[in-house]
């Protein structure tokens, strides 16, 4: 639902092999997830032009994906690692006081098939803390600690006007 909430109702999305209404995009992505190994996606530079309640945004992306057994993406049961770089071209409109995507086109500017993914086995690799997906990742634990601290501070703070924690007190 988080993906769909970035769009206006009835928006279109052209992801290449998926081209259709955004309401079906989340289901398509969920269906593809069973064919994915490791993946990481970065959004980088953005160029935005706004005119009134309409805008166009071009966002560069870099993506690493391991495809496993996905017939649509050339997958055999042997994993295939692919990196690609490209751009999202979004047409946005102001919708219920928020900027939302009315249409998205995904462009691939370049891609490379890396073949079978093989973990890095140099001695330096063994010294790095691994990322985890079991709730014990260093970042997950650190943010959970901050949430506990925040709730403790709220319990200790007398009732009063709320303050945006991202701004210094003198700007409230």
Strand content: 35-45%
Order of helices and strands: EEHEEEEHH
Sketch the major β-sheet.
Answer: 6 strands, mixed
What is the number of strand segments? 6
Spans of at least 5 consecutive residues whose pLDDT stays below 50 are none
The shape is: globular
Write down the oligomeric state.
single chain
Radius of gyration: 21 Å
What would the average pLDDT be, to the nearest integer? 87
Q: What percentage of residues falls in helices of 4 or more residues? A: 10-25%
Biggest sheet: strand arrangement: 2-1-6-5-4-3
Distance between the terminal alpha carbons, to the nearest Å? 33 Å
Q: Compute the number of helices.
A: 3
Q: Would you tell me the structural class of the helices and strands? A: alpha+beta
Keywords summarizing the entry:
3 helices; six-stranded mixed beta sheet; 172 residues; globular; alpha+beta; single chain
Short description:
The protein has 172 residues and is an alpha+beta fold. It contains three helices and six strands; from the N terminus they run ββαββββαα.
Describe this structure in words.
A hairpin with a 2-residue loop joins strand 3 and strand 4. The protein has 3 helices and 6 strands. The relative contact order is 0.13. The protein has a 6-stranded mixed sheet, with helices on one face. The two termini are 33 Å apart. It has 172 residues and is α+β, with helices and mostly antiparallel strands. It is globular. Helix content is 21%, strand content 44%.
């Amino acid at each position: 639902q988080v993906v769909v909430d970035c769009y206006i109702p009835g928006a279109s999305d052209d992801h290449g092999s998926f081209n259709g209404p955004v309401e079906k995009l989340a289901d398509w992505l969920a269906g593809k997830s069973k064919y994915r190994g490791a993946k990481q996606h970065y959004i980088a530079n953005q160029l935005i032009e706004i005119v009134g309640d309409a805008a166009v945004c071009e966002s560069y992306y870099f993506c690493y994906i391991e495809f496993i057994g996905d017939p649509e993406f050339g997958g055999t049961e042997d994993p295939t690692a692919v990196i690609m770089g490209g751009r999202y071209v979004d047409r946005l409109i102001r919708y219920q006081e928020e900027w939302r995507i009315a249409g998205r086109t995904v462009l691939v500017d370049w891609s490379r098939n890396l073949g079978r993914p093989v973990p890095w086995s140099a001695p330096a690799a063994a010294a790095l803390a691994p990322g985890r997906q079991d709730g014990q990742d260093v970042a997950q634990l650190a943010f959970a600690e901050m949430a506990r601290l925040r709730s403790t501070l709220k319990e200790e703070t007398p009732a009063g006007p709320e303050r945006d924690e991202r701004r210094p007190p003198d700007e409230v």
